[in-house]
Amino acid sequence: MRPLVRNAALNGYVELARSLGAEPLQLLRTAGLHPADLAVHPKWISADAVAELLELSAAATGREDFGLRLAEGRPFSNLGPVSLAAREEPDVRCALEMVTRYLHLHNEAIHIRISETNGLATIKVSTVLGAPTGCRQSIQLIIGVLLRNLRSLANHGWEPVTVCFTHDAPADLSTHHRVLGPSIRFGEAFDGVVIYASDLDAPNALSDPLLRPYTRQYLETIAFPRPTADVDRIRDLIEALLPTGRCSLHQVAHSLGIDRKTVHRHLARSGETFTSLLNATRRQLAQQYVSSRRRPLTEVAELLGFSASSAFSRWFRTEFGSSPRTWRSAHRHGGTGKPMSTP
């Protein structure tokens, strides 16, 4: 089943596209969307179609920063019921955890994971798309909105330590610096934001303690949180173990200090198996690594746990319909990021 997203993800899209000289209605239809999909809120639409629309719009306008420009006008309330509850949490950590647990009410394709070490907190963002559509603009939009929300929650003047992207740097960084701040790194191993861990404990500037019980109760009546805590731990271990060539169910269970049956039970709660999660993680990382020209494909094969480049190429062709080299070429030359047909 392909993921869906609320049409609020495209709030401001028509105005932005027209202001940059594009024809938004034509782009919507090309991406498989109808103008009526944006007319009535709230409505679920295809996350794949939204990702393709953003890539098409970036190409049509010649703006590599299209996703960031769309993020600029997003208020905290754009997340709907999720933002209603999160804005009343007592500190930044609780607000961010609330968003993470209930984000599926707004967007089924986004996953956010938070880890802390050595006084730093890393907020990793990933997308799980049902088709190998380019997602550079989607990632820019997500991280731009995330940073705007963090600034709303934190004290005035707050800035992240750094913002990381897996894709290459654009020719013009002016919008990136305006929206994201001075410290941005490209060609990194993950998409996300690094902040001081102590910033997570800062009081939430938007919170009203008197409203907190009511907003929590309201959110709990309309949905259950996504049961991802165990899955996220296992996914993190898969990412860490893949480059070692020892990523197996046995090794993951051993690292967690539990048996393999317990791992299966944890995954089953979220409708996953170890094989499906391993493959989904590989797919996500493959798109990130292959789209970056800085990484030789032999290195990508090793990072994804393949003992030979030929095995990686066969797997990639099965998953994405083209060779890694062809996919990288299509991604580099613009378009939507979809793999070209192999000669």
Explain how this protein is built:
The protein is an alpha+beta fold. The chain folds into 2 domains: 65-222, no CATH class; 229-332, Homeodomain-like (Arc Repressor Mutant, subunit A), CATH 1.10.10.60. The protein contains 16 helices and 7 strands. The strands form 2 sheets. The protein has a 5-stranded mixed sheet. A two-stranded antiparallel ribbon has the order 1-2. Helix 4 packs parallel to helix 7. The model is unreliable at 333-343 (pLDDT under 50).
Question: TL;DR of this structure?
Answer:
48% of the residues lie in helices and 10% in strands. With 343 residues, it is α+β, with helices and mostly antiparallel strands. It folds into two domains: 65-222, no CATH class; 229-332, Homeodomain-like (Arc Repressor Mutant, subunit A, Orthogonal Bundle), CATH 1.10.10.60.
Q: Tell me the helix content.
A: 40-55%
Order of helices and strands: EHHEHHHHEEHEHEEHHHHHHHH
Can you count the beta strands?
7
Instruction: Classify the beta-strand content into a percent band.
Output: 5-15%
Overall pLDDT: 85
State the major sheet: 5 strands, mixed
Total helices: the number is: 16
- List the domain count as a whole number: 2
Q: State the end-to-end distance.
A: 30 Å
- In which order are the strands of the major sheet placed? 3-4-7-5-6
Query: In terms of per-residue confidence, which ranges show pLDDT below 50 for 5 or more consecutive residues?
Result: 333-343
Radius of gyration over alpha carbons? 20 Å
